[in-house]
Amino acid sequence: GLYFVLVFICLHIQPAFVQAPGQTEQRKPFFERLRRLDEQFRRFQEVTLTRLQGIAENYNISYNINSRFQVLTEQYENISRVLNDFQATVDNDLNSLKFWTKKLQKKTKKLDLKVTALEKDLSDKGKQSLRENKEHKSLLFNLTQELQIQKKEISSFSEDREKVQRSLTNLQDALKNQGDKMVQLEVQVRSMLQNDALSSRQDPLREQEQKHPKTSLKLQFKHSRGKKAQARLQPPEPTKPQLQQPAQAPLQSESQSQLQPSHQAVTQPPQQPLSQSQPHRHKIRLYLTVCNVKSMLIFPGPSIQNYATFRKGFSAGIHELSVCTWLRVEGGYLGTLLSYATEENDNKLVLYGRNSSERASVDFVIGDPAYRELPAEALLDNKWHHLCVIWSSIEGKFWHYTDRWLTSTGSKFQKGYEIPPGGSVVLGQEQDSVGGGFDAAEAFVGRLAGFAVWNRALDPGEVSGIATGKGLPRGTILTLDDLAAVNGAVQHVECGCLEHCL
């Protein structure tokens, strides 16, 4: 606005200068001042234009900057979304990697334990083979000495054989003489019988009173004398005189046929051997009635879908534990009966089995990797058996009962350890994570009845009482009545007595 005012003043002053040239000299200071003012105004105009141009340029720059910032913001948002997606993918991959790494570590631990056990078994077998070799060498040495002794005895037996043959020859001669005497005796008996028959016609009453006592006394005397003679002539070995039985048999049969009426009074019937005289005793198997099982679980096949869960776990820490159940194994191997897992460790308590196990056994795991191997060969005959596994942390002792008999025991097993509460209990599968991570090769196949858990160590009398059907001891903390769900093809069947659990 100031610029236009100055221009207007100049336009009105210029005619005055033309009309009054004489007054120019008088007005020179005014024009000088006006000229300086005009120069100042021009400089001010230049400065103003420069400032306006700078402001315009700054405005264009700020506008470009805002648009650029908007573009950068959009790019940042896109990059943020991409990074978030990438972060989520990485987190999923890391979680999966951690899960598989943890599972691999557990499998590696188990394999290390198996390898350690195998190495120990190999070393034990090596030591045992060395001992057996030494025993075999000593047995061979003893056998050689025994053979030498036997050879000497055989040579002495050959010498004794000659003596026995001479004794047999003498015995044959004595038997011939005895046969001659027997013939003479038969002739005498026949003559006596004939005389007795004649006298019986004349006096029957006298014959009945006198004949039988005399003949019986005589025959007893002859018979006893013949036995004494045979006893004197009998050789030391009782089996040798049997060689002469065929030669003696005709004489004995003939004499017995003649002397049968009187000889029966002094002879006794031969005694039967013990195996014939006594009746054969058959083994009688007593079937006990076990009516303390209440219900049964049927696991039909090896599948990760077949398992049972409980609606409650362990509400407090456990320092003593007893697990008892009736089971009937149908798969030819004993799978995993029980597994208890927490967020900290998936193997806090496991009765672990697998179909690829070389030996018929089950691993009793408490706080992985500590475990004990329990024999299970007696359970694999597709029949009902009672199993009890008991553990106490006071001394680290454990007891393994099969059909109420103590099968194995040990000590220093997780002494002072506590099984923590708040975990997941599963029947029929081994948990690699809480409530999951199953493997079909570790599944139990068969029937499970009367399952019960105590938070104390049962005594042998209580174990025997369960196995013989006398009822469950007090203080159970888990039974089949506490089941929450059966999964897959598992069936929960009510059967009060074991004989009804078919």
From TrEMBL:
PROSITE patterns: PTX_2
Composition bias, Low complexity: 241-262
Signal peptide limits: 1-20
Keyword Disulfide bond: yes
SMART domains referenced in this protein's UniProt entry, alphabetically: PTX
GO molecular function per UniProt: metal ion binding
Cofactor requirements of the protein: Ca(2+)
Coiled coil residues, start to end: 161-188
Basic residues: compositionally biased ranges: 220-230
InterPro entries found in the cross-reference section: ConA-like_dom_sf, Neuronal_Pentraxin_Related, PTX_dom
Domain Pentraxin (PTX) as annotated: residue spans: 293-499
Ranges annotated as biased composition (Basic and acidic residues): 203-212
Name of the molecule in the record: Pentraxin 4, long
Species per Swiss-Prot/TrEMBL record: Lepisosteus oculatus (Spotted gar)
Lineage of the species this protein comes from: Eukaryota, Metazoa, Chordata, Craniata, Vertebrata
